[in-house]
Amino acid sequence: MSQKVIINHMEINASDVHSDMVSRNGKELAKIRFHFQVTHETYHDMTTLLYKNDFIVKVPDKNLEFPAIITNYSTSITNLYEPGTVGDFSLELTEKA
Questions:
Q1: 8 A C-beta contact, residue 10 and residue 55
Q2: Name one Pfam family in it (predicted).
Q3: Which of 5, 7, 41, 91 has its Cβ near the most Cβ atoms within 10 Å?
Q4: Is 54 helix (H, G, I), strand (E, B) or coil?
Q5: Chain-wide mean pLDDT for the chain?
Q6: For residue 64, is pLDDT > 80?
């Protein structure tokens, strides 16, 4: 089932959305992980966003909103420059301490 995840006003159609809390330095911080697809057409905008590594994350269905950084990231493909290509991205964001 897909869910809408918003990162700095960019809407992402995400799947396998999991949220929980982690303890870091005595603080409880929100964490979210999910998968999403990136196409050749959206690759530049998505990677430009991710390189900032300074986010406001919103998940309306879970009533979540928090400032975050990337704590884990992977992709199934590194060359999305060719038309028609689609990559599966996995992203984990953790609340800033």
A1: no
A2: DUF3219
A3: 5
A4: coil
A5: 94
A6: yes
State the Cα–Cα distance between residues 13 and 4, nearest whole angstrom. Answer: 5
78: domain CATH number is 2.40.30.80
Instruction: Report the distance separating Cα 2 and Cα 9, nearest Å.
Output: 18
Where helices occur in 1-97 by DSSP H, the ranges are: 43-52
Enumerate residues 6+ apart whose C-beta is below 8 A from 12. 4, 5, 6, 34, 36
Q: How many CA atoms lie within 13 A of 26 on its CB side?
A: 0
- Residue with the two structure tokens 């057409």: 41
Q: Is the pLDDT of residue 5 over 80?
A: yes
The answer to whether 70 and 85 are in contact (CB under 8 A) is: no
Domain count within the chain: 1
What SS3 state is found at 59?
A: strand
Q: With a threshold of 0.90, does the pTM exceed it?
A: yes
Q: Find out whether 83 and 40 touch, Cβ atoms under 8 Å.
A: yes
